[in-house]
Amino acid sequence: MKAIIKLKDGSQMTAELYEDVAPISVRNFVKLAKGGFYDGLIFHRVIPGFMIQGGGMYEDLRPKKADCIKGEFAANGVNNPVKHTLGVLSMARAMDPDSGSSQFFVCVEDCPHLDGAYAAFGKLCDKASEDVAVAISKVRTTRRGWFDDVPESPVVIDTIEIED
User: How many CB atoms lie under 10 A from the CB of residue 1?
Assistant: First the structure.
């Protein structure tokens, strides 16, 4: 199964989803994508050399809520062998290991310190997709309200399409 993350600027990232490794995370992501949940949301946290995070905020940084799911990673008792390398998609969460909901991040470099602590559930399929993620990570950012690393010019998700 694949996810095509289409951005308002016309660029896109295509990812393979790992149903066999993180079925709860993939099922949740697919349900939200097919329901249009991500349409119009932004990548609200972008850090060069680390990751881009989105899927839970509107352009004005109002949160869009979704139900929490079980965190599928080793520190939470789930065997998930996917390493956080360039292009890996993973569920964002707060301190509670079961606090992931709709927000996800894409690694723009290898991030081994995240292995076993976050639910990796997919990976970008090609260099063009990786290049888009890395380019997003390098956009100019600012502090807005409680948030650091917010793109000055919003990086907006147009839609996320799922191909079975």
Answer: 14
